[in-house]
Amino acid sequence: MSSINVSRHPLVAHKISLLRDQSSSPKLVRELIHELAYLLMYEVTANLDLAECGERRSPLATYQGVEVKPRIGLVPVLRSGLGLVNAALELIPTARTLHMGIYREETSLQPVEYYNKLPRETNVDECIILDPMLATGGTAIATANILKDWGAKKITYMCICASQSGLDAFVKDHPDVSVFVGVIDHQLNSKGYVLPGIGDTGDRLFNTADH
């Protein structure tokens, strides 16, 4: 089965509590999501393979250098996934960024693909999907499907908040994908939003809410 890794870091819990607060400004929301991306990416990347890259010299002696072995592809799901990208790139500056645009149709709650910036040929060894929220699971499932059809061999999914039912649906369709999540909530409302959740992350990041 998929490996579902729920963060136990106290700073993750603290920052998610702040992020949930409806009074948090767009500036604070952006800062919190950036910081949470750092913390969660630390866990996502803990088991990356290393390769030796030749002898180097410290100020005092020689040593054998190492570097991250796999070519990493970061896959932010537009538009809210953009809030996670900069932190991930600061940690893995050699990663490729492969944008995917998928939105959830309001009536059917089904995912609709509208943008795909994957190159023609597979040019990464591992893909990390970046999406702050996993609600019904439809968008996450669709993104993983697209990546597998493209030829991705190893995929990891990272999100800040997920519903239990959405996770269950994702695991059922993609048992080979590891999931890293900050917190799991246990309710969805009639519009497919997680309760208590973190709200519409795209609107909160980019200050585009109607109210």
Automatic annotation (TrEMBL):
One of its GO terms (molecular function) is uracil phosphoribosyltransferase activity. Pfam families: UPRTase (PF14681). Residues 6-208 form the Phosphoribosyltransferase domain. The keyword Flavoprotein does not apply. InterPro entries: PRTase-like, PRTase_dom, UPRT, UPRTase/APRTase. Keywords: Allosteric enzyme, Glycosyltransferase, GTP-binding, Nucleotide-binding, Transferase. It comes from the Eukaryota. Its EC number is 2.4.2.9. This is uracil phosphoribosyltransferase. It comes from Dimargaris cristalligena.
